[in-house]
Amino acid sequence: MIYLDWAATTPPYNEAIEVMANTMKTYYGNPSSAHTPGIKAKNLLFDSRSKCARLLNCDPESIIFTSGGTESNNMVVYSLLKSREKGEIIVCGLEHPASTLPALNMGKLGAKIRQLNPGEDGLINRKKLKKMINEKTRMVLIMLLNNEIGVIQPLDELITIVREAEKEYGRLIHFHSDMVQAMGKIPVDLTRYDVDSASFSAHKFGGPRGIGMLYLKKNREFLFLGGGQERGLRPGTENLASIASMAKALELSLSEDHKKTKELMDLLIEGIKQIPSAELLPPQRVEKRENYCDFILSLSFPPVPGEVLARVMNEKGYAISTGSACSTNKKSKTAALTVMGFDKRITFSSVRVSIGRDTTKEEIVSFLSALKITVNDLKI
After folding, report:
1. pLDDT at site 328
2. What is the pLDDT of residue 147?
3. What are the CA-CA distances from residue 58 to residues 2, 6, 254, 258, 334 (Å)?
4. 326 an active-site residue?
5. What is the pLDDT of residue 326?
6. Quick check: 379 and 347 in contact, CB under 8 A?
């Protein structure tokens, strides 16, 4: 099987697997215990947190270990339940369901939700964001790198607009960014982005599933109560083996050379162009290459149904998807393309191809050959 669904999850690094296994065998003590095995585990927890913070360029105290991006996003959004005045939440139309659905639920609990849709190129318009912010705005949710089309938002510029609005209205606005898909694909330096919080998930950059991080600049009241772990913000005995494994995966992913990936994406795009009726989504990604990452490519081959194409390609030994893996069992699998204004003919036929560190030129050539034949056969 040729795996071309790296945006859904990445195969773990062998070194990360070894760290996880060794930690489970050797650091079996509870980090909260005062005895020697517990202290040993606590020290590894401290070292892992420090490593993650160093790699993200932030204070170790600002890192909270969670079960992944979904929990991290939910924690931030539902923290508004602690506020007497729920106010308004601005949500980017390209957000992952892990951000969108909690926000919509907050709409049922007293907040007003305002959706900020991007242009046809997938980018958020700065003036549109500025116009949408008002004295009632409490939170802004904008992801750094979209998981369906690979567009990279100009986050630093968008954050500047929010900070200027804070001064104008004389109150704080919490800016949260889902950086789950960005980590390991583009540079993520938390000194560059003046976010209040950001979410990360290890399985997107070669670590284990079920573990992630929430970067939190300043303390915020969350709904969880328990034993006081993670500064009391996310209580529960720490998943030390997964945490140590994630720290190792983060270190390895940030040392990757992405030059090969760019070459593979060039090869993939040029090959797609040779297939009749093929649509690169959005088409602007060819001319404005700098606005999109080299790991994710959205395609459409109307009138071939995307689900059918993905299934047939899977039967031929190529793993691709129809969009976000977290939306596979839902009716809408192309939320990003829909809010960008693409018609149903395009979204219905769309698929996503995503590559990673182990993808080879031979695999891309093989995939393109099989894809061209399959698309032609399905049109008959």
Report:
1. 47
2. 96
3. 37, 27, 15, 24, 34
4. yes
5. 55
6. no
Q: Rounded distance, CA 17 to CA 6, Å?
A: 18
Residues of the chain with CATH 3.90.1150.10: 2-10+257-379
CB 193 within 8 A of CB 163: no
What pLDDT sits at residue 83? 86
Report how far apart the first and last C-alpha atoms of the chain are (Å, whole number). Answer: 26
Residue pair 91/129 in contact by the 8 Å Cβ criterion: no
In this prediction, the residues of the chain whose per-residue pLDDT falls under 50 are 327-333
pLDDT tens digits along 63-91: 999 999 999 999 999 999 988 888 999 99
For residues 372 and 55, give the distance between their C-alpha atoms in angstroms, rounded to a whole number.
41
Q: DSSP 3-state helix, strand, coil percentages of the chain (rounded to 5)?
A: 45, 15, 40
CATH class of the domain at 14-253 = alpha beta
What are the start and end residues of each CATH 3.40.640.10 domain in the chain?
14-253
User: How high is the pLDDT of residue 325?
Assistant: 52
**Token digits of residue 341:** 């204004």
Q: Residue 143 in contact with residue 335, Cβ under 8 Å?
A: no
pLDDT at residue 311, as a whole number: 98
Total-model pTM:
0.95
Phi first, then psi: give them for residue 352, nearest 5 degrees.
-120, 135
- The pLDDT tens digits for 89-126 are 999 999 999 999 999 999 999 999 999 999 999 999 99
Closest CA to 303 of 354, 372, 369, 376: 376
**Residue 95 neighbours by CB under 8 Å, 6+ apart:** 103, 141, 142, 143, 178
Do 206 and 213 form a contact (C-beta atoms < 8 A)?
no
Residue among 52, 58, 92, 326 flagged as catalytic: 326
Q: Who contacts 198 (Cβ-Cβ below 8 Å, separation ≥6)?
A: 144, 176, 177, 178, 179, 190, 214, 215
Domain 2-10+257-379 has CATH 3.30.200.20: no
Closest CA to 256 of 316, 205, 310: 205
Q: What is the pLDDT of residue 84?
A: 82
